[in-house]
Design goal:
A hairpin with a 2-residue loop joins strand 23 and strand 24. The protein is of the alpha+beta class. The protein is built from 12 helices and 40 strands.
Length: about 600
């Protein structure tokens, strides 16, 4: 018993001395000599998530991780940290470490990048004290693994809702907190990591799943995470060697347990088997192992509370804390999100919302004027925005390319035309027109809405955008001109052929026919003239003969009527007859002298 007491005092003395030396100023930097790496080349197994799923016990089905609703105890204290010193069962070793119980993990536990946001992007490494002080951590310990030569953060990392790094589906043990507060432990597929329905707000990768549902899960982890070699030996040696260790888990109430022990590889500390048994004994349900060896560090209120195992540069008589990558930080309650959705102020972990907003994150609109501004109307379901506007309070105009109610419709303006956010009508650039700006200005016009007429010589076309005459039609426009010319020529030739065909089919008289008609008509006219002139000529001819041969004789009437012939005397006036000589001779010959008629 006395020997145990003396050993205890010696350990405490060493711890106090180490803490004093660690805080005694810039003694030096870590030599990184106590390396505990699970893989010799690269990080993580090469097989897929399917391999992990198929190799696990049938009792787990296809689920390769475990979940638990997190505790939401909002009272004080935020967390409880205990220092312990204990012997390791079955050995003569004693270990010194810390266990921290986080009562409200969703609002008080974060995964931090080294030195602050952006640290992983620059392959930056920082001591846990530095990162914890910048973030205002109450308690902090080192987290995930990193490349010891390049400083690159390894595994999946999500920090306060920001995805810092995606491992690409590498199958190592993971710890994360989803947006609804669900705790997740185990192996995740790429789809699980990138799930946006209930995304991770915190996520960090370890190596080896220590406890699954209260049972030691190391053997299954050896199979799932490969038996690859690493700098201190085989992967199994990484599990079995004693060293400083860091782990994270949860209890049955959903409280997160941070575990840390000091050690030095192959000299003091615990193996992962011993860590798993220790955590199971204290009621931890699920837990994964984090970076250990010289990286194992614990900080309280920005001060180092652990005993580093790395020697210092330039004086190896001292021990220095190592610069690591990610850090698990327990801090005062923070609002989710930190800026209260831009609609409130965070205080003591609670959002104090501005007028018009409510909810734990101030993301629910209390719709009352003027909450919806000038571009919306308040309803029981919130703001109903005018066409062309969106957002909780209808203050955001539709982004270019969208229009309509809720900015839900996509513009279809071609050739760089701008879309009206309300009705989607297109304002065309110079040189184009049409409802969707799909048509180039017709030949001879240019400018906005094709209102300007070209002023080129010989009525040549101009540039549809600038009106310049020093241009040559290109592409579709040149093809259009070619087709138009071809079409016009074709129409002209068709018209000419049609006119020729019409002329050819229309009846007409030849010159010979006209000559015959003319001669015939002339002959008829001449014959008609002769026919009408013959009677006149004949009459005139008879008249002339009568005058030349006429004889005058006196025949008494009584003698003609049968009376006695009177004595000849001169014929009475009016009784003289002038007749044709032939006729008279006939008359007189028939009557005879002294003969009377009947």
């Amino acid at each position: 018993m006395a020997a145990d007491l003396a050993k205890c005092r010696s350990v405490w003395l060493l711890l106090v001395l180490g803490l004093w030396l660690a805080g005694a100023g810039d003694v030096g930097v870590s030599m990184n000599d106590d390396l505990l790496l699970p893989y010799a080349h690269g990080h993580g197994p090469s097989h897929t998530h399917r391999h992990v799923r198929e190799c696990q016990q049938v009792a787990h089905g296809n689920i390769t991780y475990e979940t638990c609703p997190s505790s939401q105890h909002a009272g004080l204290p935020v967390a409880e940290s205990s220092v312990f010193e204990t012997d390791v069962p079955g050995t003569s070793r004693w270990v010194y470490g810390h266990m921290t119980v986080v009562h409200d993990p969703l609002r008080t536990l974060s995964v931090l990048e080294p030195g602050g946001p952006g640290g992983c992007g620059f392959n930056h490494r920082a001591q846990v004290e530095e990162t914890a002080q910048a973030a205002g951590c109450l308690f902090a310990q080192n987290g995930g693994f990193f490349n010891t030569s390049k400083g690159q953060c390894l595994g999946n990392i999500v920090s306060d809702g920001r995805q810092v790094r995606d491992s690409g589906g590498i199958q190592n043990a993971q710890f994360g907190i989803r947006k609804d507060g669900t705790l997740v432990f185990g192996y995740l597929s790429e789809e699980d990591v990138l799930d946006q329905e209930n995304p991770f707000v915190q996520l960090v990768s370890g190596v080896v799943w220590l406890l699954r549902n209260g049972e030691v899960y190391i053997n299954q982890s050896l199979e799932a995470e490969c038996d690859s070699t690493q700098e201190t030996g085989s992967f199994r040696h990484f599990v079995e060697v004693v060293s400083g260790r860091t782990a994270v888990g949860h209890d049955a109430e959903g409280k997160v347990i941070l575990f840390h022990i000091d050690g030095q590889t192959e000299r003091r500390g615990m193996s992962l088997w011993e860590v798993a048994e220790f955590l199971r004994k204290y009621g931890v349900v699920n837990a994964i192992n984090l970076d250990g060896g010289g990286s194992s560090t614990y900080v309280v209120n920005s001060s180092l509370a652990s005993y580093p195992s790395d020697h210092c540069v330039p004086d190896s008589r001292w021990r220095c804390a190592r610069a690591v990558s990610t850090v698990l930080c327990v801090h005062p309650p923070r609002c989710q999100p930190d800026d209260c959705s831009g609609n409130g102020i965070c205080g003591d972990g609670h959002c104090r919302c501005r007028d018009g907003w409510t909810g734990a994150a101030c993301d629910l609109l209390l719709c009352r004027p003027p909450a919806c501004g000038d571009h919306g109307v308040c309803t029981d379901g919130g703001c109903v925005c005018d066409a062309g506007w969106s957002g909780h309070n209808c203050s955001q105009e539709c982004t270019p390319g969208l229009y309509g109610d809720g900015c839900s419709k996509t513009c279809v303006c071609a050739h760089g035309g701008t879309c009206d956010p309300v009705d989607g009508s297109c304002a065309c650039p110079p040189g184009f027109h049409g409802n969707m700006c799909q048509e180039e200005c017709p030949l001879g016009f240019y400018g906005v809405s094709c209102r300007e007429e070209c002023r080129c010589e010989d009525l040549c076309p101009c540039d549809p955008q600038t009106g310049s005459c020093k241009t040559s039609p290109q592409g579709e426009r040149n093809s259009t001109l070619h087709r138009a010319g071809h079409c016009l020529a074709k129409q002209m030739f068709t018209k000419w052929r049609k006119e020729e065909d019409d002329q050819r089919q229309r009846p007409y008289l030849t010159e010979r026919t006209w000559l015959i008609f003319t001669v015939t008509l002339s002959s008829l006219l001449l014959a008609s003239l002769v026919f009408h002139l013959m009677p006149a000529y004949k009459a005139c001819n008879m008249g002339s003969r009568f005058l030349e041969r006429q004889d005058c004789s006196y025949v008494p009437l009584g003698e003609i009527n049968g009376g006695s012939p009177p004595s000849r005397r001169a014929p009475a006036k009016g009784a003289l007859h002038c007749e044709d000589s032939d006729s008279q001779e006939d008359v007189w010959s028939q009557l005879g002298p002294g003969r009377s008629g009947p």
